[in-house]
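Human:
Care to share another protein and its fold?

Assistant:
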Amino acid sequence: MNTKLTSGLFGFIALLMASQANAATVQISPANETIIVGGSFELTIQGIDFALTNGGGFTLTWDANSLHLDSTELQIQTELFNNGLGGNSVFITQGLLDVIRVVSPTVPLSGNFNLTTLIFTAASPPGVTEISFIAPPASAWVDENNVELAPALQPNYVGASITITTPEGVVPVPSAVWLFGSGLIGLVGVARRKRA
């Protein structure tokens, strides 16, 4: 009985430690945003609940027909550097942002920190679109000794949901209404001609 209790206790402790091992998260804040078509908005990429780390990378993807990334590679690199993260490479293509190995050159990062802020413009008609991380990223996260973290210790990635709306009071008029209206005006013109 004592052996079962001991092994059960060790199993519980191992489960608790495993759940804490991957507690770090790379997330987008705010996670939900509502924006009007043509409007700009900012999203911040954050590191949450990190143990000591010298950095890592992340890859974001989104529907390029719905959202346009206004931030440039140079702006993102500069902000990463200003947040204490140097030695990075930033690549932007249609609907994809790849940040490879952001590194803290002086003091390891821990706890909660901002990586960078991205500026987007809503470019599509109303609807919901997602901004999500591709995991694992091109470059893994490392500890304070620049040793790559084991897969179980790599952070979780949490994306964002963007709702795109039309401005209040503006309701798009379907083309069928315009066609019906022009036909009605034509019929009124024909009726007037017959009377004359």
